[in-house]
UniProtKB/TrEMBL annotation:
GO terms for cellular component: cytosol. GO terms for molecular function: ATP binding; hydroxymethylpyrimidine kinase activity; phosphomethylpyrimidine kinase activity. Pathway: Cofactor biosynthesis; thiamine diphosphate biosynthesis; 4-amino-2-methyl-5-diphosphomethylpyrimidine from 5-amino-1-(5-phospho-D-ribosyl)imidazole: step 3/3. It is an enzyme of class 2 (transferase). The keyword Secreted does not apply. The gene is thiD. Keywords: ATP-binding, Kinase, Nucleotide-binding, Thiamine biosynthesis, Transferase. This is Bifunctional hydroxymethylpyrimidine kinase/phosphomethylpyrimidine kinase. Its EC number is 2.7.1.49, 2.7.4.7. The keyword Transferase applies. GO terms for biological process: thiamine biosynthetic process.
Length: 283
């Protein structure tokens, strides 16, 4: 029987502070109207201020999480976030073997948390480039992540271009194998996402919300993008929708939750908490 709504799988880390990682992914999936599922790669003890510990999930158990949901529910799109170690990258590569060919895969090459904590070691970065990027329908690095990945591409002789032009970065990253590249704009003044499909560059512009809260913006963006692919949108349409949703989530973000960069709020536009006071006023 066909699924009543698409089912989207996040293979990513847990943020105990609830701002990024799988916690952000599930909220973004709910906002997009798809059924969200998770295969957790690592537990982080994390707040808005920093990460005090990382507990990787054994590779075999990452594979088991994916195999179990794929066998029963099925998967219409995959989003891959924090991986952390090369062993995890290899396990995720193997886990993808349990998902049908042709299912869209969105990879957000998470390297550093908004708070500055390092979430990916050097060996894992090389493994992502080698084992996962060629399988991606879309990759969604932010500007610093794009620079790091493109530097690897230059060493491999894939590009001779200047590294600081964002369009050139997107082209260089396309050379690493993904079908489409979005370099997200959160780290640039004009906050324009740059989309490249191997033929042409499209600039995805929108409003900038300098006073918003952006912890989890990248996770929200890549999950919304995967959800829109599962809903049948083209990669470019999905990237445009994801940019809009992430931007609204930053605008509605909670700056006063925690002492560091506050979490995005992707459900803020749609949901109002019912408090005893509000309920009494309505009665
Ligand atoms: N201040 C902002 N105003 C509007 N949109 C924003 C803002 N900051 C980020 N975005 C949007 O959010 C999405 C994620 O971009 P960003 O570059 O922040 O990702 P990221 O750095 O990977 O996020 P994270 O901080 O979660 O790792 C993009 O579509 C981007 O345009
Ligand atoms: C588990 C996990 N995954 C991803 C991020 C990146 O998100 P951000 O850069 O917004 O902190 C994070 N902080 N934690």
């Amino acid at each position: 029987m066909p699924r009543p709504v698409p089912a989207v799988l996040s293979i990513a880390g847990s943020d105990s502070g609830g701002g990024a990682g799988i916690q952000a992914d599930l909220k973004a999936f709910a906002r997009c109207g798809v059924h969200g599922m998770t295969a957790i790669t690592a537990l982080t003890a994390q707040s808005t201020v920093g990460v005090t510990g990382i507990h990787p999930v054994p590779g075999e158990f990452i594979i088991e999480q994916v195999r179990t949901v794929a066998a029963d529910i099925g998967v219409d799109a995959v989003k891959i976030g924090m991986l952390g170690t090369a062993e995890t990258v290899r396990a995720v590569r193997e886990a993808l073997g349990h998902i049908e060919d042709g299912v869209p895969i969105v990879i957000d090459p998470v390297m550093v948390a908004e708070s500055g904590a390092v979430l990916l070691d050097d060996e894992a970065r090389a493994a992502i480039v080698r084992e996962l990027l060629p399988l991606a329908t879309v990759i969604t690095p932010n500007l610093p992540e794009a620079r790091v990945l493109a530097a690897g591409a230059e060493r491999a002789g894939a590009t001779e271009r200047g590294r600081d032009d964002v369009e050139d970065l997107a082209r260089a990253l396309h050379g690493l194998g993904p079908a489409n590249v979005v370099v997200t704009g959160g780290h640039r003044d004009e906050v324009t996402d740059v989309f490249f499909d191997g033929t042409s560059v499209t600039l995805l512009a929108g409003e900038r919300h300098p006073d918003g809260a952006a912890h989890g913006s990248g996770c929200t963006h890549s999950s919304a993008l995967a959800a829109h692919l599962a809903l049948g949108f083209s990669p470019q349409e999905a990237a445009r929708a994801a940019r809009r949703l992430a931007s609204e989530a930053v605008r509605d973000g909670h700056r006063s939750i925690g002492r560091g960069p506050g979490p995005v709020n992707v459900l803020g536009v749609a949901v109002r908490a019912v408090t005893p006071d509000r309920l009494a006023r309505q009665a």
